[in-house]
Specification:
With 168 residues, this protein is α/β, with parallel strands linked by helices. Helix content is 37%, strand content 13%.
Amino acid sequence: MDYSRYLVLYSGGADSTYFIEQERTARHLIHYRGYNLYQTSVAITNANLLNRYLTIVELSSQCQPPDGETNQIHALCDTKIALDACIRALSFGMDGIVMCFNSDDIGIDSNAVEAIVTRVESKFKLLLPLGNRTASEIREARKTSKLKSSSCMNSEHCGYCAKCLKGF
């Protein structure tokens, strides 16, 4: 698929890094800076290495989720991020956004978000291309990658956050 007219939410985590590494047409990336500053540096470095456009958005202190949800509060924050990304993509005349949730993520109600946005632009799409892949499948496929990723909620790999304990 050609993702050149889609805005890709790029966390710097394993799933979104896998996606942008595999999909060369995924050129327009947006990163929402959260608590993990290492993850932001990974996102910047990988975007440069892959010759991608990257926009970094500062989040308000009341909603700075980690990469991927660990609970329903984080899913709610990701919904806010998805809506913001949709508005940004619409303002640039893009066809939609790409969110790199895998089948193990809690995920957001993407159909509800898409229903809201399609009231403005009927052909707008919210794509979830990794929705049928498990986290372990993606990590296995990334073993040969030279790109770094960080799915830790705190740093490179803290060892005690919800993501590290799950092995992500």
